[in-house]
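Shipment paperwork, digital attachment
Item: protein structure file
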Amino acid sequence: MGRSLDGDFDGTFPFSGGFVQSGPVKLHYVDEGPRDAAGAVLLVHGNPTWSYLWRHQLRELPAAGHRCVAFDHMGFGRSDKPPRLSAYSLQAHVDNAVAVIDELDLRDVVLVVHDWGGPIGLGAILERSDRLRALVVMNTWAWELPSFLPPFVREFRTEGLGEILALGGNLFVESIPGGMERRDTDPVMMDAYRAPFPDYWSRVGTLAFQRDIPLSERDRSAALIASIHERLDGVDVPVLLVWGMRDRVFQPVFLDQWRELFPKARVVELDDAGHFLVEDRPDAVTRSIGGFLQDL
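Attachment content:
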């Protein structure tokens, strides 16, 4: 038996949360720190994590006086999990993120994004660009992905095989340690990442993300991600790029593309971190974000 999703995972996630209604879906969020703070740090996770990813930042940044909000995407964490793959599109996730921004009335937002949190969070804040104060970008993308994606990523897009791997084997979650450089994997951390996905149909959101990656202009979300990429040219706010340099998917060439988009960005390269840099080096990530916030 796995751990209850309602637990605090041995005190590592002691935060009480709330819910935002977005259409038919309830989205779980955590809101820590002073509500009267000048702005809000909005932490947006990717696949297959949830707001648990940000547990160190949710503790340490509010202690320094910052309001921090982290929410769980539809299909993840404590949010609702529609059982149909068709429910999960980039547009639906962007609309959900906009609902969180609106419902919590987040202003002067410092947007922090990782993995799929990049196109989702950026897509949402571009719809509310007057609320954006700064960006923190970590191991993500916001454009049509190149065709040289690793074969193991493409396997999830194969009908039948993808279902066996992602829904039957929960392979996205089980592969988290493989996306890290640390080899002393914390069993409590893995319990927390397994907890939202106890059975076959609870894992649909993880597979849907993989099927929705735009690899060509024919893919469902290609037009939206192209629009997001195009509109990023008009973003003129302070930017921090924090990158796990040992990421085998979002390799340093992706960081180079972000540097081209934001040539004035502050850059932190973590040579001993992989894709899940927030787990590999939570101290360095928190320190980088905290210093960036101080200088705004």
